[in-house]
Amino acid sequence: xxxxxxxxxxxxxxxxxxxxxxxxxxGLAGTGEKPTRLALEITARWSFLLFxxxxxxxxxxxxxGWKAVGxxxxxxxxxxxxxxxxxxxxxxxxx
Length: 95
Known about the structure:
Layout: H1 4-29, H2 33-64, H3 73-89
């Protein structure tokens, strides 16, 4: 079982990376249609990577010996959910 404090750390890191990527894109390129789309694409790809690791982590660990991802499906799944929150908030209409 995963300790709650460790799970919160994983979610916080994933959320922080997604927020940082979004802020960098929107801060450097502006808040127009193309930069907003780029920020959405970046957070979508980051979220997909976390989902993919949650889904295939044990298989990767068994096939390649990469023990860092084995048995961490719950953490990667929680990270994916944290990243999705940033991705979802980008759809809020700008007035």
